[in-house]
Amino acid sequence: MKKLNVNENCIGCGYCVSNCPEYFEFSNDGYSKPIKNIIENDDLKYVTDVASGCPVDAIQVTDASEAIEDNGDNEKAA
Questions:
Q1: Is this model's pTM higher than 0.85 or not?
Q2: Would residue 78 count as lying in a domain?
Q3: Cα-atom radius of gyration of the chain, to the nearest Å?
Q4: CB 3.0 to 4.6 Å from 1: which of 10, 36, 64, 68, for a disulfide?
């Protein structure tokens, strides 16, 4: 099982939201965040392809057992 996260590198370009709306949406601050944190096995290639297309490598796909420091909220400092 794989876990999905968007880290602080996100610039809010919308690539993931437009290409994978089942897994990504915009947060209130305009950055991407995961809708689902766990990736269904049938969707793994689809989501990892979108992750590899992120222009700033903000999307992380890891083993669900690995700890991820960023919770995906992407609250940026003003």
A1: no
A2: no
A3: 11
A4: 64
What does the pLDDT look like over 6-48, one tens digit per residue? Answer: 999 999 999 999 999 999 999 999 999 999 999 999 999 999 9
In our burial notation (b when 16+ CB lie closer than 10 A, e otherwise), range 32-65 reads bbbeeeebeeebeeebeebbeebeeebbbeeeee
Domain-embedded: residue 11 = yes
Q: Does any domain span residue 44?
A: yes
The CA-atom distances, in angstroms, between 27 and each of 36, 42, 50 are 13, 26, 18
| Token output for 7 | 């880290």
Query: Domain total for the chain?
Result: 1
The residue range of the domain holding 32 is 2-63
Length of the chain: 78
Distance CA(68)–CA(13), nearest Å, equals 23
- Is residue 10, in this structure, part of any structural domain at all? yes
